[in-house]
Structures are given as C-alpha cells and as structure tokens.
Amino acid sequence: MIEAQGTRAEQILRTVFGYESFRGEQADIVDHMGAGGDALVLMPTGGGKSLCYQIPALLREGVGVVVSPLIALMQDQVAALKQNGVRAAFLNSSLSAEAAREVESRLMAGELDLLYVAPERLLLPRTLERLASIRLALFAIDEAHCVSQWGHDFRPEYIRLSTLHERFPEIPRIALTATADEETRREIIERLGLDRARVFVSGFDRPNIRYRISEETGDARVRLLDFIREEHAGEAGIVYCLSRKRVEAVAEWLCAKGLNALPYHAGLPTEQRQVHQSRFLREEGVIMVATIAFGMGIDKPDVRFVAHLNLPRSLEAYYQETGRAGRDGQPADAWMSYGLQDVITLRQMQAGSEADEARKRLERHKLDAMLGLCELTGCRREALLRYFGDVLEAPCGNCDNCLAPPETWDATVAAQKALSCVHRTGQRFGVTHVVDVLLGRSDSRVQALGHDRLSTYGIGTELDVSGWRGLFRQLIARGLLTVDLQGHGSLLLTEASRPVLRGESRLYLRVQRPVVKRQPRARRV
Ligand code: ADP
Ligand code: ZN
Predict the structure, then answer these.
(1) GO CC: one term (predicted)?
(2) Which residues does residue 262 pair with via DSSP β-bridges, in sequence order?
(3) Ligand 2 centre from 210 Cα, in Å?
(4) Ligand 1 site-directed mutation target among 28, 51, 54, most atoms within 8 Å of CB
C-alpha cells in the first residue's frame, strides 16, 4: 500500500524538523495560521509552541517575524533552525553593527524564512519601514504575557506591539504564552488587538510531575538535602529561593554537603550568570539555586526536580516554575517547603511596593490562592488545573495528598487560645511573641510587658513552637488573622475570627506531617 503523503504541514514537520506527528493542538494551530488567521496560543512550557509559528512561516510566502524578549533563547532557536536547513536569523543587541547589517540585507533580499527580533529593535521606525517593503508571512509574539502589567515579566515595549496590528493589518499574528489565567488572557487580547484571534488552550496538566507541598518543620534545607540525596542523586534540578542572599547561602551549603550546586540571581555579574546557566544546560546533574530571575526560556528537558524553599507569589508563578521539571515527559518532582515567614515577607513586599491599591489587592488575592493550594487537603493537581480553567475528572493519584491523604484535627480550641492571646496582648505583637506567651515562656520582654500575668499565659502547652507557628500560619491563610503590614507585622483579629472565638464555628486543620517519601512508580527507561 502506498503511504499517504500527508498535508504539506506534515511533510515539513517530518522532513525539516524530523518529527513523526503533531502534538495536541499543533496541527489545528498550524492549519489556522497557514490559512492566514490570528491566534492566541496558551500552552504550557514544553508543550511545543515553537512549531506553531515556525511551520506556518515556512508554509506561507515571505518571512515570519518572531518577537521574543529573550536573547539567549533566540540564539538557540536560530541555531537549531539553521541545523534543520531553515533560513533563520536574529536581530538583537548582541550583534555587531556589521552583523546586523548583513542580516538586514538578507532580509531585504528575501533570503530569510524566519527572523527573530527583540521588541525594541522591531519597533524602531527603520525596522518597521523595512518590514513594510517586503513580503511577510506572519508575526509571532512569543512570551506574550510580557504585555501584562500585572505579571512579573512585564516589558513596557510589549505594549507598543499593538503597532503591528495597526501598520500591518493584513498580516496574520500569533501570540503565545504559557501563562493562562483569565486576567492575563484578557490583557493580551486587548493590548495586542487580538479580538479576532482564535484562542487555543491546551491541556495544562503535566501528569508526570508529582506535586508535594509541606510546611516547614525545622530546617527546610536539611529536608531538601534528604530529598535530593534519596530521590535525585546526581540529577539536574532547580531550587528556587526568594532572596539573592538566600540563593547564595543555600548554594554554598549544598556544595559543602557535596552536591553540585550553582547560584543564579540578577545581582550576579552577567558573565557569571552565563557561565552558570550554560553549565546547568550542558553538564549533567547540576543543581541551580536561583531566584525567579532564572528560568524563562530555559529549554532543558531532563530537569528532574524543581524545589521551592519559599512560597511563590502566585499559582501562575508556581505552575510556571514547577513546569520546568520533566519536560521530557519522564517522572519529575515539584517539591516545596514553605513557612509562616514567607507569607509575612511576601505580604510586606507587596505592601511596601509602589503599586496602586488595585494591584496590591490583586497580588494579595493571588498569594491567598497560592496559600489555598498549600492548605488543601484534596488533590493538588485538581485545584491547580481548576485555577487555570482546566478540569481534571478524578483525583490524580500523583500528588502528596492523593498518595497519602492528610489527617485533619479539630483545632477549634487551639485556635480560640491563639486568637484570645492575640486579643489579650493588644494586637500589637507578631507570632513569635504571642507564641512565647502561649507557651508560658518568661523572658525579660514578656516580664517587662507584664504578659506573664495574662490569662492566656502558658495555656498552650498542647503544641510546641512549630505547632503554634503552623496554626498561626493557617489562621492567617484562612483570614482569621491578618498581619499589620504598615507596622511591624503585628497580628490583628478579623471579622472572621469572631465566630471561632465565640465557639460558633469549628476549625479543622491538616495535621502537620513530614513530606511523603518516595513511592514506587514506573521506572524511567
Ligand atoms: P514551548 O515553547 O512550548 O516551551 P518548545 O516549542 O520549545 O516548547 O517544544 C518543547 C520540546 O518539544 C522541544 O524539544 C521540541 O523539539 C519538542 N516538540 C515539539 N513539538 C513536537 C512534536 N510534534 N513531536 C515531537 N517533539 C516535539
Ligand atoms: Zn492528586
């Protein structure tokens, strides 16, 4: 029998890229773009967004112009395309004037299939004039969430990309991102003038990633070390920390324990960052300890774990960061340890930022959603996907809560003690002091304040320090207490604390327990 040749797109997929078949929605997207439509593609990291514009650019006459904010990524993509025989080039600040001129003359001569360009470069009047005088296949706007002022990857030049729509109304445009929340989606459509675009949302589930979240008990670094040694010895991973200082301390500490760890944050010299990044990409088993400055555009398929030593600021950030694990589809871990201090620090950072009230409220809401995931007693994946508008039919069986359902306990009495101690100490103290009072600790501060004479002094011996801290964290997460962000992090009662204080509503909390250890699962081949 004669094999069907397939469509032209399929032929390009096979002959140019060497892949057998399209994945997920790629085929539909390529069809749609090939026919000249506009598209907004929401696809998780590793989902295969690049082919969605590369193949249509080859199908259509003229050059496909790809806007990307990431210089390193551009270079990698162009190098890979050239290896496949595609006539590709990039224009960005890393090129010498001479090299840029050469690219421009190839562009004008119609010798390019794909041109990657940094947004600020594209928006130069000179570049736009040149593009207006040649045949264009399409515009692809990669990392389109950079247009969102709410996101932490905001790039002001992205807003000006609406020019493309105005100056080149006939040229199909495709915007792509891995960030899929409603808010960002709306902003992309609005700011890039994509109201006629077809929206493609692909499955956000990453079934090979096992989610595990636990509250800090003792030194999180020690548990991290155990986790890496027991489950990921010699494998590549990323450890995210909130601050540069912590990044350096943790990297140093892991090295001292014999692991191959490197620091990465925006405060390091560019050259050192590049060296560390390329070692992570090229050597085996390097652990990158990093702030969120690391990761966007990193294409390393065999990252076996992503660990968070702090709470990410939103579910979008958590999803995006953990999504860097297991892009090859093999089992991988998303491991997190968070503590009360994270919540306080993040809230203080938010409160102290320059942002206006509306934005602060939104950020607060996002952090609460993140905490909600941590607090959860049900399937983590189900909740995470629900947030992104994706539905999981049944609990996943591959998260800590599915593998070992958490126990809950009736925390009503303990919560009443905690809340009344906050009340008795005048809502003027942070967690550490209130816990001291509950435990009946008598240091000079407690005595000077006369807090050893309060009715709540020493009434909390049923829990230890970390038990109380955990309880306070959960009270904060559930809105039964707030933290005074203007002041010094004093705990304040809320409307919601009253029914609990009066015994009208009960409170069940998850029992703190150590993180799930490795469970048997299919071996990698
Ligand atoms: P994204 O930009 O969505 O993060 P990429 O476009 O970089 O993802 O693709 C991720 C990986 O999947 C790459 O290694 C790519 O070569 C591979 N890939 C993409 N589409 C296919 C396909 N149809 N068949 C096989 N591999 C694919
Ligand atoms: Zn689950």
Answers:
(1) replisome
(2) 288
(3) 8
(4) 51
Ligand 1 atom nearest the C-alpha of 49 is 3
Rounded Cα distance between 27 and 29, Å, is 5
Place of tokens 């892991």: 254
Q: What is the 3-state secondary structure (H, E, C) of 140-169?
A: EECCHHHHCCCCCCCCHHHHCCHHHHHHCC
pLDDT (tens digit, 0 to 9) for every residue of the chain, 525 residues total?
334 456 899 999 999 999 888 887 899 999 999 999 999 999 877 778 999 999 999 999 999 999 998 888 898 899 999 999 999 999 988 899 999 999 999 999 999 999 999 999 999 999 999 999 999 999 999 999 999 887 778 899 999 999 999 999 999 999 999 876 777 888 999 999 999 999 998 778 899 999 999 988 788 999 999 999 999 999 999 999 999 999 999 999 999 999 999 999 999 999 999 999 999 999 999 999 999 989 876 779 899 999 999 999 888 889 889 999 998 889 999 999 998 788 888 888 888 888 887 777 778 778 878 988 898 888 999 888 877 767 788 999 999 999 999 888 899 999 999 999 999 999 999 888 999 999 999 888 899 999 999 999 999 999 998 889 878 877 876 778 887 766 677 899 999 899 999 999 888 887 764 434 444 454 443
d(CA 164, CA 430): 52
The ligand placed nearest to the CA atom of residue 380 is 2
Residue count (the chain) = 525
478: which 2 tokens? Answer: 């559930």
Structure tokens at 455: 């009715």
Cα 45 to ligand 1 centre (Å): 9
Which among 13, 75, 299, 321 is the best mutation to test ligand 1's pocket, defined by most ligand atoms within 8 Å of the CB? 299
Q: How far is the CA of 372 from the centre of ligand 2 (A)?
A: 15
Separation CA 379–CA 279 (nearest Å): 36
How far apart CA 74 and CA 70 sit, in angstroms, is: 6
Judge whether 430 and 491 are in contact, CB under 8 Å.
yes
